[in-house]
Amino acid sequence: MPTLMDTYIENRERVQPNHANNYETAHGGVVMKWMDEIGAMSAMRFAGETCVTASVDHMDFQRPIPVGDTTVIESYVYDAGRTSVKVRLSAFREEPRSGEREKTTESHFVYVAVDDDGKPTPVPEFAVETDRETELREAAVEADPHSHS
Q: Which helix (H) or strand (E) holds 133?
């Protein structure tokens, strides 16, 4: 049975001029794409199956990420249904020389596991085993406006 930490991924992308809008900061759609890709990786690591995006919760872009800075995407599974997987995603602006970090956005994405024919397929039970996993799950549930756990 996969645990939360089995699904934890932190990935970095350097913001280049081709990722930018007219204000020389990362385009929100590019950041959302990066979040979706990393979130899908967490979901697939949990499900052991291909996972497709089913829904994206509300996203607020709290601060820009300038060209030259690094975007850090943090992703982990915090809940699962019969065929669906809930993933918490956070994006941070990171200054590459100092490592100074500020949260820029966060959201909850839902993915559905699919079989080779593209049909929804069951996912394993979700497990939380360590204090760190409990802490991360509680933070995700608290921040998820749709969670009833």
A: helix 131-143
